[in-house]
Amino acid sequence: MTVATRFAPSPTGTLHVGNVRTALHNWLLAKQHGGRFLLRIDDTDQERSREEHVASIKADLKWLGLHWDGEERQSARFDLYEAEFQKLVAAGRVYRCYETAQELDLKRKVLLGRGLPPIYDRAALALSEADHAARAAAGETAHWRFLLDRVRAIEWNDGIRGPQHFDPAKMSDPVVRRADGSWLYLLPSVIDDIAMGITDVLRGEDHVSNTASQVQMFEALGAASPRFAHEALLTGTEGKLSKRLGSLGVAALREEGIEPEALIGLLARLGTSDPVDPALDAPALAAQFNLAHFGRAPARFDEAELHRVNAAVVHRLPFARVRHLLPEAMGETAWEAIRPNLDHIGEAADWWRVVTGPITAPTLSDEDRAYLAHAATALAQTGADWPALTAALKEATGRKGKALFLPLRQALTGMDHGPDMAALLPLIGREAALERLTAAA
Ligand code: GLU
Q: In this prediction, what percent of the chain has a pLDDT beyond 90?
């Protein structure tokens, strides 16, 4: 069976770093096996779902290069859910309940007060057809619970957490449908995973207890469970899911100059025993992706690290990838000269202005000014050739190291740091370089 994974965001907000990580890992897992990565929009909650969020989720995935091989929307699948639900009704695996939230709360408190686990007591299971008819006549509508099979333990071998074991006798029958007929997340997700042929469900460990219920739902619907893997959640540097991290959206990172390759490079490896490697692109990361390398400890997301990875990525980006983001006249040689100095592609334009000028002439000592006058004469001979120019000046003036190089850099760029002068000087060109040296002298 070919591998099929899915990313199933609820369009109640935009993607943040945690969702991106889940999407990416599902993409990597699918691509590693030459399988399919599917997008499922979990929009059963029609009140909180927004079309603009669907659009921004898709735009972010595209920007990241996480292209999907198929797409479903839960809001278009209510007929399927109804049909599958009726099978469970016929099989007696779902049952009607009427307790209000307050009643359930009270039951829980009573149990907890007696030192017992707050498990739903299945009182509604004892209702007769006459009871249901009486409630219907009184205008009451039922919500539905899934009847867990309490005889056998629920077990699966989790791709990250290893063997999992749940005792269904210690679980409440989960509510799967509200009194107004709307769906909760649990059952539609199982119905879709079956219908979409999902072989691997990879998601956050906040879903582990959902999985325990869902394992029985797959069974009740006559399907084999997919493989499950639950990854530790992402935390901020301070060790918990910070507000900043929860709201750290892809759009904000993009505005800060983070490149998709950096976000992918970091998130692919965060929480694993594999080092982050800015040289690896998404297909290479897919080839090396290994669930067994994921740890159980929360993965720490550090924005400063993302910026470091970003710089390392930018230093490798080929001209063809960035051309449209650079000043019109800036060519490949200039890009290659300048990129080692960048944290963000946007800064290339600043350095390009240093190349094209005008620059502000530095204020220097008389001694350095005399040296630069000398340099202008030398440059007239050597041309815009840094090794030749500096070799000639070293020979003629006896200067070396900083004294040799720094005044030249300052005069030629107006800065005391920057890209390699050997690469920069030819870009500035003989004429402009002569003017700058003369101006500073
Ligand atoms: N819409 C669910 C969520 O965002 C999907 C969970 C799942 O992957 O099954 O939590």
A: 92
Q: Give percent above pLDDT 70 in the chain.
A: 98
3-class secondary-structure state, position 300: strand
- The token duo for 127 is 């209702």
Tell if the pTM clears 0.70, that is, is over it.
yes
Q: Are 87 and 221 in contact, with CB atoms under 8 Å apart? A: yes
pLDDT tens track for 152-173: 999 999 999 999 999 999 999 9
Which helix or strand (DSSP H or E) is residue 374 part of?
A: helix 366-382
Strand partners, 70: 38
What confidence score (pLDDT) does residue 247 get? 66
What Rg value do the Cα atoms of the chain yield, rounded?
A: 32
Nearest CA to ligand 1 atom 7: 8
Q: What is the pLDDT of residue 249?
A: 87
- Classified as helix, coil or strand, 141 is coil
Checking if the pLDDT of 242 tops 60, the result is no
Atom of ligand 1 nearest to the CA of 204: 8
The verdict on the CB of residue 203 being under 6 Å from ligand 1 is yes
Tens of pLDDT, residue by residue over 167-209, are 999 999 999 999 999 999 999 999 999 999 999 999 999 999 9
- The atom number, within ligand 1, closest to the CA of 6 reads 8
CB 146 within 8 A of CB 93: yes
Quickly list DSSP for 169-225. Answer: GGSPPPEEE-TTSPBPSHHHHHHHHHHTT--EEEEEGGGHHHHHHHHHHHHHTT-PP
Q: Say how many Å lie between the CA of residue 367 and the centre of ligand 1.
A: 69
Ligand 1: distance of its center to the CA of 249 in Å?
A: 18
What is the distance between the alpha carbons of residues 345 and 178, in angstroms, rounded to a whole number?
A: 50
**Three-class SS state of 194:** helix
Mean pLDDT computed over 410-427: 96
Q: Quick check: CB of 42 below 6 Å from ligand 1?
A: yes
Q: What digits encode the pLDDT tens for the residues 329-349?
A: 999 999 999 999 999 999 999
User: Does ligand 1 lie within 6 Å of residue 189's CB atom?
Assistant: yes
- The answer to whether residues 12 and 46 touch, using CB atoms and an 8 Å cutoff, is no
Instruction: Tell whether ligand 1 has an atom less than 6 A from the beta carbon of residue 210.
Output: no
| Whether residue 362 has its Cβ less than 6 Å from ligand 1 | no
Residues 6 or more apart whose Cβ sits within 8 Å of residue 378: 389, 392, 393, 396
Contacts of 371 (CB under 8 A, 6+ apart): 393, 397, 399, 407
Pairing of strands 234-235, 227-231: unpaired
